[in-house]
Amino acid sequence: MKNIDVIIPIFNEGETLKKIILELNEKVKAKLNFIICYDYNDEPGLKHLPSLKNIRTVINSGKSPNTAILSGIMNSSSEFILVYMADDLENIDLINKFVDLSDRYDLIIPSRYVEGGKFENAKFFKKIIAILGYILLNKILGLPFKDCTNAFKFFKRDLLKYIKFESKVGFTYAIELTIKSNYLKKKIIEIPCVWRNLENRDGNFKIIKWLPNYLYWAMRAFIFQIKSFFK
């Protein structure tokens, strides 16, 4: 049975966090170790964890979701790493497909934009940054993937031997992981997933503050594409 570290960044979470952990444990055909990354000691989501098994908590080393995710990744030890959102009830059944594909691919990108993927009822500015990322990275810069900005990712820990993360803000680790893995010619597949806005699904998304950092990583993607051409 495969071992997977499940990185879940949390911010003002409620009972849904516990429900997701229980469902993942029940449905996924792998041994799951949960690394819950939190910003502050009074985080309400922490109170739902004591009754659960295979849980570790890690304090965010910075002040953004990106640094929370990277704090979890740096504290991981299993062969595979899954970054999963604390309010994602739609994609639990998809994880077994990741497990089935994990021997053949280094990075699995769940995508809202490939055939079968869905991106429903998103708030205007969140949808704008996702769509702009798709157009800029895929259509203009020519990256062969449609959903580089999606923080939901599954990858082999072995990638960490070759990739040193530099991103700090938003969820830009997702772009960084994708463009660097592609540059290294790692095996990558994109499969459909669902993102659906639910009531009170606001999380910690700050479009105006983060936009310059997304544009920076788009520029870095362009540079990697140029370097790949001459490689």
Quick synopsis:
The protein has 231 residues and is an alpha/beta fold. It contains six helices and nine strands.
Mean pLDDT, rounded to whole units?
Answer: 91
Q: How would you sum up the major sheet?
A: 7 strands, mixed
**Whole-number tally of structural domains:** 1
**Beta-sheet strand percentage?**
15-25%
- Count the strands? 9
Shape: globular
CATH class: Alpha Beta
Can you name the CATH architecture? Alpha-Beta Complex
N-to-C terminal Cα separation, in Å? 38 Å
SSE diagram, text form:
Elements: E1 3-9, H1 15-27, E2 31-38, E3 55-59, H2 65-74, E4 80-83, H3 95-101, E5 107-111, E6 118-120, H4 124-140, E7 153-156, H5 173-183, E8 188-192, E9 194-196, H6 207-230
Helix pairs in contact: 4-6, 5-6
